Structure to design on (296 residues):
């Protein structure tokens, strides 16, 4: 009903609401385009990692539109310290999962020069044909410790020096129990290839809370990325997608993980599936860049 006022003025409600709506839209669009953002810039701040500029790929589109980290354009890495500064600590650590106790091989690189009690923990998983030893061999654990972070790698069940095995159904429980038992906080999970079977469900079964379980994610061409396409858009986990440009899995991995709103991609030029083995320096550079961004 239009309603007739005592004055006799006829008010057409749909027209009034329509004009108000148009004015509101114009106001919002103007605010956003002028760079002010809404509510004092909250909208523009939400999409930042640390103090870095946005890494959002709003369209979620595939290759060619990614925010790219180019290893060859990054600064040189800090030099490793003299021998003896970093000390490797290896142990068999007991973890109980679903009533079963496993002995898990853990390697940590200790840095006597830094206090890591409040630092990020960089937690390395590995691919099917690999183990924690590979991260030792290419000095990844040394670099991470040298940068001031807690530096930890494990041998996943049935691999390397972890003889005990568990069923796939308990992969998430295993990771969860291990992280708790080790007292790890502020975790960045580095997860290549086969270890995607552990890290992906752990992080993205419940995508809205993935940031409670990790502060950063570095997938290196993991398996099973397509299984979580529905979940990625709901996660705010900062992610660095690392892949070798010669890896046949790269396209699928990139298309899937690009659905994560806070991702950057770091192609390692000319490298294959195990790109960190093919070009450790480029891998270390992009990792260093990502970790600095999380803490700055
Ligand atoms: C990275 O930078 C190098 C040197 O400037 C350039 O040749 C290369 O094409 C760049 N790669 C990407 C993926 O942009």
């Amino acid at each position: 009903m239009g309603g007739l006022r005592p004055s006799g003025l006829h008010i057409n409600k749909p027209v009034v609401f329509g004009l108000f709506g148009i004015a509101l839209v114009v106001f919002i669009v103007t605010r956003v385009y002028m760079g002010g953002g809404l509510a004092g810039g909250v909208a523009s701040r939400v999409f930042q990692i640390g103090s870095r500029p946005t890494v959002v790929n709003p369209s979620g589109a595939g290759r060619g539109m990614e925010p790219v980290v180019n290893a060859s354009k990054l600064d040189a890495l800090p030099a490793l310290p003299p021998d003896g500064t970093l000390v490797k600590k290896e142990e068999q650590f007991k973890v109980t999962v679903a009533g079963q106790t496993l002995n898990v091989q853990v390697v940590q690189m200790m840095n006597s020069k830094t206090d890591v009690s409040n630092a990020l923990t960089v937690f390395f998983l590995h691919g099917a044909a690999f183990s924690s030893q590979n991260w030792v061999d290419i000095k990844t654990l040394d670099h991470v410790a040298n940068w001031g972070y807690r530096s930890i790698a494990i041998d996943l069940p049935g691999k390397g020096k972890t003889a005990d095995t568990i069923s796939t159904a308990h992969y998430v429980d295993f990771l969860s129990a291990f992280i708790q038992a080790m007292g790890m906080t502020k975790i960045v999970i580095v997860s290549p290839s086969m270890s995607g079977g552990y890290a992906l469900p752990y992080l993205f079964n419940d995508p809205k809370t993935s940031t409670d379980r990790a502060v950063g994610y570095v997938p290196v061409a993991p398996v099973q990325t397509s299984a979580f396409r529905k979940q990625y858009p709901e996660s705010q986990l900062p992610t660095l997608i690392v892949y070798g440009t010669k890896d046949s899995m790269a396209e699928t991995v990139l298309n899937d993980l690009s659905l994560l709103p806070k991702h950057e991609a770091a192609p390692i030029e000319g490298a294959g599936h195990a790109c960190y083995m093919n070009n450790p320096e480029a891998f270390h550079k992009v990792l260093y860049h990502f970790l600095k961004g999380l803490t700055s």
